[in-house]
Amino acid sequence: MSTALTPGQHALLESELRLARQRVELALKAQLDGQGRVAHAAALLADDPSDWREHEADREVDQARSDRLLVELGDIDDALMRLRQPGYGRCIDCAAVIPFDRLQRQPQALRCLDCQTAAETAR
Length: 123
Ligand SMILES: [Zn+2]
What we know:
Layout: H1 7-45, H2 49-83, H3 100-105, H4 113-122
The protein binds zinc ion.
């Protein structure tokens, strides 16, 4: 299966993915630093479960946020890896070439718009 992208498009997406990765990594680092403080406070309060409960809510919000960032980071790494393979830029469901403007907006895209919509509707 030949690649759907020109070398120029390929290079552009790769640099965009690397930039996106840096952004997410920084956000994740900031998030984890904040969480470290919360975890420390929680450890101090661990003897008193009633205080702990208040902090639990904060912790869950933080956890959800860093989970989302981790998923995003995984998607980007995934896209970077797939970018090096010949099938990149093709829909994983119907093998149609994914339009470059879609890839530019969303380099992690695995599917053409039709299949993506179908996948999201089925969920
Ligand atoms: Zn498709």
